[in-house]
Batch of 2 targets.
Target 1
Amino acid sequence: MKLCYFNDFRLGVIKGDQVVDVTDAAKGVPHRDTRDLIVGVIAEWDSYKGKLEKAAADGKGVALSSVRLRPPVPRPGNIDCMAVNYMEDGTLPEKPAINCFHKAATAVIGDGDTMVLPDVPASIFEGEAELALVIGKRASNVKAADYKQYIFGYTCFIDGSARGLPPPGNVFFQMKSRATFAPIGPWLVTADEIADPQKLGIELKNNGVTMQKFNTDDMAHQIPRCIEWLSSIHTLEPGDIVATGTNHRGLNSFMDGDKIELTIEKVGTLKFNVKDELKRTWARTTRSQHKDKGGEGPHTPQLTGKYAKK
């Protein structure tokens, strides 16, 4: 099943190129407002799956093109992002140590929304294409072999980054948790629709040009290990998001006016825009292209605009 939010956060089921409103079928789920409804539905899935399936089968759909999609999980309790979790097309000499960071849940935006680049002296703004897991039930000290029991579904995720911010303070937090820096969507695909999440193609296009293209089989620490490790540190709750990392070689500058499309095989395509009131610019090169040209540092330098080095 493909679940979504649309318009004023109505809960929907995707059927081909149509969406059916199933909000009323979940009205028994405790929630503050409809933006929290999906977390309750996930937690009570065994009780509500049949009701939603019937509502989707009996209801009249409307064209997806006629609605505004919203983030499929607007208020996750946690966003855990795996760090340096790909072998980078075999270019890393050894498997990196497993690592993760928290991203603010208030950074979430959805399909068709806009990532806004803030007025801060970042050396570059990037967005990392990632497969995200959505947790289905409380998970604490999970064994790797049991990981599937705890995954409700999958969605597309972008980990926005303002690189190179200067001290003071926790620079990593400032880099990752900016407002609008966590686009997700376009919908949530339940786990039963994807037999092997470790064999999914991922492609990110910036203004129609492919910049990132890799497969989830290149993960350094695969999904079972990620769930095992994370749940040994803190309890994962229904609706929590685990972003599984990216291949950094294709990372590229996000600039004003960019139109980003992230497609994950069997999941869908997330589209969003980028806005920068300062109109800063960088060369349109990936990290690997910059390195191959003998460039200094991990990425291309800022060319024009506020904070560009003279």
Target 2
Amino acid sequence: MVTETDLRRPDGRVLHVYDTGGAGRLPVFWHHGTPNVGAPPAPLFAAADRLGLRWVSHDRPGYGGSTPLPDRDVASAASDVAAVADALGLDRFAVMGHSGGGPHALACGALLPERVVAVVVGAGLAPYGAAGLDWFAGMAPSGAASLRAAAAGRAAKEAHEAADESYDFGFTDTDLAALRAEWSWFDSVVGPAVASGKGGLIDDDLAYVRPWGFDPADVAQPVLLLHGDRDGIAPVAHAEWLAGRCPSAELRRFPEDGHISVLRHAGSALEWLRRHD
């Protein structure tokens, strides 16, 4: 069972929080993708329960029940996570992010070093402008166009999102199969994320192409990177770059997987987290 509550920050913002509960369990903060709300990943509940893990998460600002925070950077996620952890009385926890949640999970590792025990990133992005990385290479054309618009600034990004254009997510056959099966769960978190507009999505994409507010090299905890070689949303070169930058990173590549189907391996990532508690 997932309990949902609202947490008010000192600046007046509200964070909508999710918690599966369980005293004595290792909390795992789930960082959702773009555009999703923050409900923790139901397809992983059984594995987490077996391993004694507790899911905690929140809607990032501008999504679901969380107040927008225009011009936020990726690093701001660490402050919000610390506030949620304090409210729930959690001293130590792991973090796990998929897609756009990956950079936010890394932010927590870098900026909350005394609290975060390990970091899992599935299909995540590297920082925009990362040295030695052709950032857009391998992205589906529509995804690259969307992020290029973000790189041009808020007005260009808002105009891009307002245009009535079809969007090719770059999903592979394995992605589509996963979305027809247990990861059809995404239907429950994507629709609510854009029900009242694309503000959260726009703020996310702007944050990805601005300075993140931390260096992945500062993530000293164990880091597990899961990435599909056929990912057209966050190309595998991004994970290779992160693996070379984070000092304690392990990269697991999956030749047949794309952006969603890589989550087929998330159960083994939870086992890895349990070993690093």
